[in-house]
Amino acid sequence: MDLTESQTPIQAPVRREQTAAFSPLYQQIRQLLLQALEKGEWKPGEMIPSEFDLARRFHVSQGTVRKAIDELAGEHILIRRQGKGTFVATHREPVVRFRFLRLAPSDGETVPADSEILWCRKVRANAEAAAALELKSGDGLIYIRRLLSFRGQPTVVDDIYLPASLFRGLTMAVLTENTGPLYGLLEARFGVSMVRADERLRAVAAPEDIAELMKIERHKPLLRVDRVSYTYGDRAVELRYGHYLTDQYFYRNTLM
Amino acid sequence: MDLTESQTPIQAPVRREQTAAFSPLYQQIRQLLLQALEKGEWKPGEMIPSEFDLARRFHVSQGTVRKAIDELAGEHILIRRQGKGTFVATHREPVVRFRFLRLAPSDGETVPADSEILWCRKVRANAEAAAALELKSGDGLIYIRRLLSFRGQPTVVDDIYLPASLFRGLTMAVLTENTGPLYGLLEARFGVSMVRADERLRAVAAPEDIAELMKIERHKPLLRVDRVSYTYGDRAVELRYGHYLTDQYFYRNTLM
DNA sequence: TAGTGGTCTAGACCACGGA
DNA sequence: CCGTGGTCTAGACCACTAG
Questions:
Q1: Coil, strand, or helix at residue B92?
Q2: In angstroms, how far is CA A125 from the centroid of its own chain?
Q3: Which end of chain A has less neighbouring CB within 10 Å, N or C?
């Protein structure tokens, strides 16, 4: 995989002079790996070179590469599989999906979500969206509304805003023909991998349009989840407002 | 610190025969460290022995001890401080507290919580509490209700259930004279450290008694947070039902 | 200056998966 | 059988803290 190609190696492993901003070698390697991922050198689901190959490429020891990969694996950006190799994480694996869809049923039975795209429009960013997505007010956004149902019960309404510049060609048709998770589509078709998301949760009274979609009475309490998602390098690439009906499901979380 | 005392060392570092349940050495060390913590050999806030001392004690290399500590530090059970030592995490440090109280104000300003204990009673475990706390129905529990206010606005009502057997002597008087966080009291006075918690979030209409305490109208949407907390070794030691008013505050969470 | 955690290396060997 | 990640060791040196 391009091991002989020209590729900005760390020449003399940079030992900054004392008391200057000190960055350990393995952090520099971590950054180089992130850059390679961002460039798309290895795609989601693919295997990256072995630790020894990477060590040769970056002119460091295998242990140092290992520590860099350890960190990225801890962030769920890479996935180690003993005996097989190290792979780029992908949202097309269900285990990843569960990290980003935190609804679980009150009574055991896990259940697949049934997704219906309600619309997909181009809009202009208002101040709030622009601030969250690090854009300018008025920049183009793609606005998607979708409805998730479990066992036929409409349970989640998501209003999703994506920078139009990153997702040219994302249309209603593309969305409806996609079967897997949305993030899987975004990474496979547009090369944008969601790596982290910050959420803010509140209890709110159901707005009229959402109550109608969910077939519930107005003002019923809903869990509102505001999400900003980030790709490599903490770049915000999605703003999402979710309304969750939590009669049969709950939002699960673990504090550590 | 008892380095010469008799203490079940790993004698011949146990290399299990092939294909049998294999546990790496550093995992065995991790378990021994957890046992020492559980025994109270090192108390919250205290420094544990250096990596080299522990290596001698357990008859392994410093690198192996280091890897065990790495894991415990990743679980926020231990805290490393370069140049000083490795310390047992304590809930009396604000940084830890924020991991377990996830409310943040909608408008910047962070604010200290003002806690009022409403009552502290002995009750018997119902089926639900018994199941969550791994007890038998009818076992003794301490039931605490408290009210947290921010800027004078009542915002959180917590109903807390603790196994009476673990917290003998926990009374209204003890609670009211405690100034810091509840978990700080529990670890300092009863030797029970909260290490992890699972939460289930729902939006609900405010029950009458809670609406009254918060001085809000009945049926107003509240965020209900059911929590089970665990100490070392995944032992459940707290069941808590929280009702959060999310007009001015939100529950923050990061997905990774 | 001494003691602690943090980094980096090189080498040996083990566990796992697949050909 | 080989190639991968995983473990363990020993040793050298760096960065940080405190006396």
A1: coil
A2: 21
A3: C
Q: How far is CA B147 from CA B77, B117, B184, B211, B219, in A?
A: 28, 6, 17, 12, 19
Token pair recorded at residue B105: 């104000």
Q: How far apart are CA B126 and CA B119, in angstroms?
A: 19
Answer for the pair A54, A198: CB distance below 8 angstroms, yes or no: no
Contact A237, A231 (CB under 8 A): yes
> CB of A192 within 8 A of CB of A202?
no
The 10s digit of each residue's pLDDT in A80-138 is 999 999 999 999 998 898 899 999 999 877 777 899 999 999 999 999 999 999 999 99
Nearest to B201 among A100, A227, A250 (CB): A250
A77, amino acid identity = I
Q: Which of B201, B205, B250 sits opposite A251 (nearest CB)?
A: B201
Q: For residue range B56-111, what is the model confidence (pLDDT) as tens digits?
A: 999 999 999 999 999 999 999 999 999 999 999 999 998 898 899 999 999 877 77
Closest by Cα among B49, B46, B12 to B28: B12
Q: Say how many C-beta atoms besides its own lie within 10 A of residue A176's C-beta.
A: 12
Please, what are the domains in chain B? 25-88 (1.10.10.10), 106-251 (3.40.1410.10)
Residues B249, B155 contacting (CB under 8 angstroms) = yes
Cα–Cα distance measured from residue B106 to residue B127, given in angstroms and rounded to the nearest whole number: 38
Could you list the protein residues whose CB lies below 7 A from any atom in strand D? A 15-16, 18-19, 22, 48, 50-53, 63, 66, 80-86; B 13, 24-27, 60-64, 67, 81-84
CB of A256 closer than 8 Å to CB of B99 = yes
pTM over 0.90: yes
Residue B252: beta bridge partners? A200
User: What pLDDT, in 10s, does the model give residues A3-25?
Assistant: 333 333 333 345 444 445 689 99
CB A99 within 8 A of CB A76: yes
